Amino acid sequence: MSGLMAGKVVVVTGAGGGIGREIALAMGKAGAKVVVNDIGAALTGEGQTAGPAEKVAEEIKAAGGIAVPNTDSVATRASANAIIETAIQHFGRIDAVVNNAGNLRDRMFHKMSDEEWSQVLDVHLNGTFFVSRAAANHFREQESGAFVNMTSTSGLIGNFGQANYSAAKLGIAALSKSIALDMSRYNVRSNCIAPFAWSRMTSSIPANTPEEKARVAKMQKMEAAKVAPMAVYLASDAASEVNAQIFGVRANEIMLFSQPRPIRSVHMSDGWTPELIAEIATPALKHHFMAMERSPEAIDWDPI
């Protein structure tokens, strides 16, 4: 097959359904040899099966592509190493990693358990680290490679009941930036996508009030397949000059996100006291305070 990813080998984690499935299919269509990774579990983590990964791999092959399934977890170093090793054993190399695997354990912060916290951090943040770290040595030796990491506006902006998910997703953005800085000397790139799409994970969003129902109705129009072209592009050589960026994809809309930078400062030649901060610094800075917004309030226009 020909395309932007011809001759490349890519791992897509969490590729058994939703956004990951669409990215894996698009990678295959673009000519990549694809490792379709998915543990095949329910959103709550139970009932692991090879079925979803195998099905997507068969879909890629039926369309004329090349793919193998993998059911190892991203959440430990050993199993993440096994994911990358699947690419090496079957295809002899690894050129790109799409860190898409995810889970949800939504709960208001003051009710969140240790287990709900750690389960989400283990898959999202630790998983992104472990899989990326497993690929890093190969990328370094061949002096090429691309990471595409999934962040979220729940972390970049904020949301209710997702302290675990938000912390992990903002952590992924920082991790991606650090990877880009540390590995650019080896011609390795690392970028993020904040996807807006209806999937199995987003289907858990509450829809009880008229406002919530309206929001969910809009989200249901955002197809997971719309995210895939950006992932393929960022993994390809066409994006060789794109590094350490955060993009949003929402239906037919592509966003470039800002990253934290100082926006205002105040100086006191003799130093600050708590009283002076209250009297002078805070009044000078408060007009530039960030609003306590959630993602749907900050991104409040209709993409359709």
UniProtKB/TrEMBL annotation:
UniProt-listed InterPro entries: KR_dom, NAD(P)-bd_dom_sf, Peroxisomal_Beta-Oxidation, Sc_DH/Rdtase_CS, SDR_fam
Domain of life of the organism encoding this protein: Bacteria
Transmembrane segments: none
Domain annotation Ketoreductase: ranges: 8-204
Family statement: Belongs to the short-chain dehydrogenases/reductases (SDR) family.
Official protein name in the record: 3-hydroxyacyl-CoA dehydrogenase
Organism: Orrella marina
